């Protein structure tokens, strides 16, 4: 008690029986409760105490965060019309060189970029505790270091499930997104603007001189729009781990479940996978099980020879020994050989072009910029891992 009590604070400072203080209330936080003496219960020989919380909730302590969203203006339509009328669309056709997919992506990207630059921006204040607190907590507290620390314990291993969605951005239901934005605290006008922006969008397909009939879209988010990744992150903010032994890592539409398993008990991990599948069904997201992979990291001296596979919707998930996660090659033995070899191979390819530039007599400034952009960025990518 002498070692523990000095770290705690006593909140009752008045006599509770006669002139003696017999009642104690200790917490690790100073002045978090305000005690009030009340009459004794029944035939008790000491008074009763009412503890009133004096602390402020985390929601009230944190300052609102600022988010920048686009706001449609009546003058934007005329500006965009002038912009597109003076655009040389033949440039995109020549650059695509007959590739209709490349032409479509470049034109859509140009239109989206033009709208993002012309449409005025409005700053929205959102409470941090109400937005992506769970996602932020998962990123800051439960990281790769947590997994490595877990593997250092006895009779433990980890299972990693790399989720792949089928056209995740194209399956978002705008009405469901608007409901989630309201729950997060966004203002009604902004939610209505986003809902209007995502619904009743006309779309046509043009191949050469032929154009298809117009089709009205009311699902998904437009490709090439800067707002789309942010809307997707807000749409999936409630996809969080249900068990403390599991970690869910999200980056755009990439989702990974990490199960920290002790004593061969995979109940929490398997329940997490089932819960994610049910969440996807509720939110109209389709799992691409054929591209979903699982990797098992087991450092035990006597590992299980055959781990029971994971099944999603009756389909077995393929187990792999390595996986490229956000540009980094991860292996089941956590060796960096595969990733290092891949980086060196790619860097050597760029070195060839660097030598060609030097042979052509390019000045040192251009060669230096090429090196920093193409080679140094490749070698230093994810170097903190």
Automatic annotation (TrEMBL):
Domain of life assignment: Eukaryota
MF (Gene Ontology): 2-oxoglutarate-dependent dioxygenase activity; methyltransferase activity
Boundaries of every Reverse transcriptase domain copy: 92-330
Annotated source species: Nothobranchius rachovii
PROSITE patterns according to UniProt: RT_POL
Pfam families recorded: ALKBH8_N, RVT_1
InterPro entries: AlkB_hom8_N (IPR015095), DNA/RNA_pol_sf (IPR043502), RT_dom (IPR000477)
Lineage, highest ranks first: Eukaryota, Metazoa, Chordata, Craniata, Vertebrata
Protein name listed in UniProt: Reverse transcriptase domain-containing protein
